[in-house]
User: Fold these one by one.
Assistant:
Number 1:
Amino acid sequence: LRAAFPYFAAIDERAAAGAAAALAPAYLDSAATSQRPLAVLDAEREFLAHSNAAVHRGTSGAVGAATGAFEGARSLVAEFVGAATPEQIVWAENATDALNLVTLGIAEANLGNGVAGSERFALGAGDEILITQAEHHANLIPWQRLATKTGATLTYIPVREDGTWTIDDARAAITERTRFFAFAHVSNVTGFVAPVAELVELARAVGAVTVLDACQSVPHIPVNFAELGVDFAAFSGHKMLGPNGIGVLYGTPEMLSALPAARTGGSAITRVTMETAEFMPPPLRFEAGTQPVSQVVGLGAAVGFLTKIGMDRIAAREHELVERLVAGIEELPGVRLLGPSDTSQRIALTSVAVEGLHAHDLGQYLDEQGVLVRVGHHCAQPLHRALGMASSTRASVHVTTTEDEVDRFLAAVRGAQQYFGMEVSA
Ligand code: PMP
């Protein structure tokens, strides 16, 4: 499989040629961004070389072909995440942008720039927006802004000692005044998997709209938004073997048609006068301006690649890797695993804090050993604060990860403890 990725093929070639293992990087940072298979790079290149054109405008055959590729990718992505129709898939720049499309759209609805059905999003003093303390800043700051704009109150589910939270914690935090409930499917720090369907049920009971940050789930496990019952969901192409610069906002037809466009301009309209504009139905209403067509085509190819392997197989393979990581970490004295030790409650990544060792020192040592991980707060400062630390070290996997890479990470953490003179009894 690694041979299908130019990035890994080059590393493996070097290793096979006898280069020192430390020089062949162990890429354990797919949670930040994943490497792209040749199928994706080829699809982008092929499109740009032979079919490049701006979509949905003009009458030429070239535009028709580009539009076909663009809309074809939308259908593939829709099917991949269980959307009933392609119109439920809105292109955005990334997950951050997709989440902002929701919060900025709600703000527009409350500023009087609504569309039919926007009353659904009325928000004001006394209303509550519920999130969790474990959110990535992308699913926190946009809600802070929306609360400030509308006078609503931002409330949150606090995390427990291990960074997780339960359905009972959610039950205690949700109220009759909760209008929106936004949470990550999978935490990018703890790997904890939220019980989405049950949470949606809680939200529905109080009439709250649900917004799922699916950044760390869609690339790794089978995800069906319709079955989960969420109203909106967001994810990024670059974490699922696809291109940068393309993300997805999923919405139910009811929600998307009631949401005003946060960004306006060309392409997204039906009739414009000097005073007014009328907008297209979703998804085109949200896609003002010239679109990133080659990225969309690349994302379609990434979905095709993942589907060909099978998301069930990918999930099973990554589960083995995470079990190996968790078991290895738990054997290391002085190393604290963030998130649940029960591997049935987590996927895709592990973060650790090493007693007496700053994450950046550890990161630098790992880097010198050729082990590529992520150190810092991972855009989740409140979560780290709740866990009693400023930063942590995260190793994340994808379907290309090998046991050897996992073992090199574990050995290098141990090596760092020795290098920095930690007194840890084995
Ligand atoms: N949410 C989560 C859980 C993430 O892991 C990330 C990426 N680190 C984001 C949101 C933001 O994704 P992007 O930077 O692609 O917009």
Number 2:
Amino acid sequence: MHEHAIHPVSPEWAAKAKIDAETYALKYRASIDDPDSFWLGEAQRLDWMQQPTKIKNTSFDRDDFRIKWFEDGTLNLATNCLDRHLEKRGQDVAIIWEPDHPDTPNRIITYDQLYKDVCRFANTLKADGVKKGDRVTIYLPMVPEAAVAMLACARIGAVHSIVFAGFSPDALAQRINDCDSQIVLTADEGLRGGKKVPLKANVDAACEKANVRTVIMLRHTGADVPMVEGRDVDWHDAIEPHNAECPPAEMNAEDPLFILYTSGSTGQPKGVLHTTGGYALWASMTHEYVFDYRPGEVYWCAADIGWVTGHSYVVYGPLANGATTLMFEGVPNYPDFSRFWQVVDKYKVEQFYTAPTALRALMREGDEWVKKTSRKSLRILGSVGEPINPEAWDWYYNVVGDGRCPIADTWWQTETGGHMIAPLPGAHSLKPGAAAFPLFGVQPALVDPTDGHIVEGATEGALVILDSWPGQMRTVYGDHDRFIQTYFTQYPGKYFTGDGARRDEDGYYWITGRIDDVINVSGHRMGTAEVESALVEHPCVAEAAVVGMPHDVKGQGIYAFVTTTATTDNSEELRKELVQWVRKEIGPIATPDVVQFAPGLPKTRSGKIMRRILRKIAENDTGNLGDISTLADPGVVDDLLANSPHAK
Ligand code: ATP
Ligand code: MG
């Protein structure tokens, strides 16, 4: 394999970081040995109305199943994100909004202003009849009103369900119905990369299949959209009569905060339910430690609020910590491939957080787009969503970060509420492609997928978590059996993540991909990440997705879908070269049987490769591709089908 340098913690980082190696070791031990004291301590980062006295009350045993944290404590998450900052930081910037196009005026919103906007909108929701526990569907683009809506729900105890503002009317209707929400918050249109998204029209279509009482619509692009009498109201008209003071609801720590449907990479999306206290603590704590955040710094997570990353790391974590959080409406390649880095320079961003899919897309366009910007303000870079290939990691580190900025490769899930495994910049040497070590209270283990026994030492297996952590989801909304079935049945008594991982001789965790995607070639088990990373090492390859295919002799063969860089000619020679390349990089066992060039890979709207579709193509079983409603561009699939060797 290619050598990727290990990066030790620099002396400066060790000296100034919030958590150094020694502190990490001590705190981690304490979090496992005496969780009640540890978490009571960490809970002091929140303002409680009623301090909790019962801390951890959890069991993953089927017969005695319970997940409760801080169960007699009460609090309100909106006051934690707003009210308590007003005295000292009212004039500090809470949200910087950077619009889709750089020439559109931006918006700078202070904590004072955000507090007023949230109270006003909370009163608006109340006046519409929204009560504690009611579900509110949010289908808004990346505008500050989206954060206002979330916090307004939290303020009155309503449960928000955000649906990514790119999903189809059907997908929206399905999610409105699943949680039975009577109200939808939307905008006339969204705007991404200069393209308009007909949000209100989508809501209208969804409402034909759902029972919606009220639609509150924000005028964003100013498009002329029809309004339904008695159901639809203009956002500004709706808030007009209401004042900017709204007493916060006193919420039990275990009261629901939000529902969020998973990306649907592996199947039917699940309505993940998070509660108030544990989630708030988890989002705040991980945001502070993983990004080494200090008030006053400009922090930017480029994820959409439609994903859990946007919930925990654009809104709740940063605002609970009194941060300045940047909210970006646009996309990385508009107006050009330099946009991310221009925005970094414009606001002197110190922490920047994005997904490998964006990095690979930018990397294939060459370094010039990055190099013409300064990026001097950057201190930390984050990655989330998929395993980051070592090649992309090196590019992020060397080209974007100029070799100065530690990379936080954060492994976590919608279900986990926040980061679970990630290196801390002042504590851990970095290995490109490794998510490294568990955060406080997180007890990862690897099990043998065939019989479920725990495997120790440097080895590979299915990734499980042995005990509860405060940010854990509490149920699948409306289907507790599915919750138990999905996460606690395969390996009884343990939380099953669905992912596979490797632990190396230094104890670092490397996520190898979804366990369902593991390929078994002649009895040799291989994670998809490893083969894909080998392909991405080749200078002509921008992105790769690997799946298993039936093979008479080997049981399974390797089928690789490959997207090449902008300037590459997809020749027969290159195909042969890639086969030899993987053989040389990993070994003969990993020799791809098929390499198919693909102009694009099927991805979820959150940017993840949907391997289950590729698997069907590789198996030549394309009659029923399953639920593809969360696919970003279904057209990609037609191209793959037309060019698959089976089609010829
Ligand atoms: P669904 O559960 O509906 O199939 P999903 O798993 O894609 O969708 P998310 O909760 O958004 O939905 O994604 C979590 C998954 O993303 C993880 O289980 C893991 O497979 C992958 N992932 C996230 N971060 C990382 C990371 N840093 N390294 C490797 N994999 C990651
Ligand atoms: Mg998942």
